[in-house]
Amino acid sequence: MAATPEYDVLIVGAGPAGTACALGLAGSGLRVGLLDKAAFPRDKVCGDAIPGPTLRALARLNPRYAQELRELTQPHRTDVSCSRLVSPRGRELSVQWQAPAFNSPRLHFDEALLVLVRRHTATEVLENSPVKTLAATSVGVMVTLADGSTLSTRLVIGCDGANSAVGRCLVPHPLNRRRHCAAVRAYYQGVADAPETTSDFLFLRRYRAGYCWVFPVGNGLYNVGFGMLSEDIAREKVDLKQVLNELLATHPTLEPRFRQARRVSPLQGFGLPLGGARRPLTGFRVLLCGDAAALIDPLQGHGIDKAVISGMLAAEQARRCCQTQDFSPAFLQQYAQAVHQRLGRELRFRYRIMRLLARVPWLVEAAFRASQWAWLRRWLVRVVG
Ligand SMILES: Cc1cc2nc3c(=O)[nH]c(=O)nc-3n(C[C@H](O)[C@H](O)[C@H](O)COP(=O)(O)OP(=O)(O)OC[C@H]3O[C@@H](n4cnc5c(N)ncnc54)[C@H](O)[C@@H]3O)c2cc1C
Hints:
It comes from Hymenobacter metallilatus. By secondary structure, this protein is α/β, with parallel strands linked by helices.
């Protein structure tokens, strides 16, 4: 490896975590590279619900980022103000949200984030660049791409999602099915009784620790999916695609809505590494963010906001490392502490609630019944929402 690595910081993965990290390094004067195996715009299997804290975090970095993101996603999003929840026994509950949130297909949302990076930073963006292996040396990290070419960096930030190559090579950690979900989703048109301002969540008697969703994403398109805990999928040998198709054809709430609907994309699946466990987020000259760090909300399956927040925290740590020339494992631990402080407590709490609801299914029904009292509903929405 050359004496001086060509990058100070190399961010692997240009999803929400990687782009937020690049934005966090704007104006740092560091040589920053952001590489992704895909060419953008690229699809990402997701529910496409952009949690409110995502834009709030970006706005704290620079108010223009949130404003420009709204403008860029305008043709491909819908603002959501209401959630409709259906209990396992069919009881319905509507929740009006005060905080602004929107749904937008990741094909367009992630492209908009990358536009912000190109507009506001001097980051070198490398698309079509799949990372194959990484190896730490005393002066940095050597990154080998699938075509055999290499890149060198003083610090690498793994933002490459649920199947992270960075994590596999530099911070290996076994898959824990108790803390992992899998889900499938497809896009539909022509869904009946589905206002563009309302996201639907359906909880099912047969499949605990999971739910089915119907999320409007604008332009008459709906993101429809189903996911559950990987431990249960393996134990009960569940075929998620088959279950979703059956639900749309037979579930009393869904069947009438999907009678005339048309699927307009393949039905695809992907993993969700859940947060709430203390797992290593750093290694030798490496930080992990977003799904690569397993930071998804165990209760709702939301991870975009956690990806953005952890990406920004990693950017702060990268600045500190380069300023002090300290890349030691002990110094990098500051990042892990910051993530645990900012997100860890909430994720642990929500993981415990998810396990409790899975173990004691009548609690879900009881919560729906209890929500007829406004004060209790407000409290439940605060806890679970
Ligand atoms: C079915 C499903 C539904 C979901 N629904 C929601 C939802 O509605 N709302 C929500 O907030 N969250 C949702 N999530 C979670 C959300 O998708 C993730 O938490 C979020 O995408 C994490 O962002 P990230 O930047 O960490 O990773 P990603 O968005 O996965 O981005 C990783 C990037 O790294 C690139 N990459 C991967 N490997 C390599 C490699 N070897 N070399 C180079 N580049 C590489 C990929 O191309 C990708 O661009 C859902 C997840 C699933 C699976």
